[in-house]
């Protein structure tokens, strides 16, 4: 046995690393790295990388240059109540700010009452004038590019790859999965289940736009459920939608008479609304049909070049894939 200070036996062979073992560890490491890289790329491809499927013809290019420049400055400041009314031969728009409760239970929301002469004044627009996934612009940017008088965020169709998506009379996606909402050329609005009504039937009935998010809040004048187990998506990063959150909703009072509601939330002066509270508000406003659109940081109301509400609690909009908006003329 070798003592502490004995010299090593020169005839004792030196240990050598096993090349097969080293090669095995290198292969395992490479597989793990490639696997992680694949997962990261898959997530980026699903939620970050733009995928343009259709570029929509733009007939507003020549008319929007100065409006875009103006809107870039004005959307930094909230609109004030002294300019929340608009009247013309085509439409009447009146916006009201409502606050209820106090302290940590306070809710701030905005109600836009809209009466149209012709349903064609209510339209939809896509971010960057393109249809696909992960294509986003702020609501105010899309609105300004389309000379909108009024706008709200839409259903953020680009966050998912299913649903029935008809925009301005064109079918872009036809994968029925959930409760949806349709706007028609006669000024009516209908909530329905996508699996029960085909896109061809909707077009035959005069559907101009469909939005696929939900849930349905009011159908045939009645609140549809208690919303205790509503599930819209299983997408990565989705929050629970039952709790109080920022909200956006559209309702129809009568043909060509709409009400739009945007609720601020997750901030000191507004906790947001539950779906049940939102349904109650829509019913109290006289909506016979009402539908919940994308909420959270997306919830934005735009009017006459400025953002009315307080997105994200810091007057900072979050990019969305689409909007509903009002425009004069054809």
UniProtKB/TrEMBL annotation:
Q: Would I find Transmembrane helix among this entry's keywords? A: yes
InterPro entries tied to this protein:
NAGPA
Lineage: superkingdom: Bacteria
What's a single GO MF annotation on this record? Answer: hydrolase activity, acting on glycosyl bonds
Task: Describe the location of the Phosphodiester glycosidase domain by residue ranges.
Answer: 146-326
Q: Which residues cross the membrane?
A: 25-44
Q: Does the keyword Membrane apply?
A: yes
Keywords noted in UniProt: Glycosidase, Hydrolase, Membrane, Transmembrane, Transmembrane helix
Q: What is this protein called in UniProt? A: Phosphodiester glycosidase family protein
Source organism of the structure:
Paenibacillus xylanilyticus
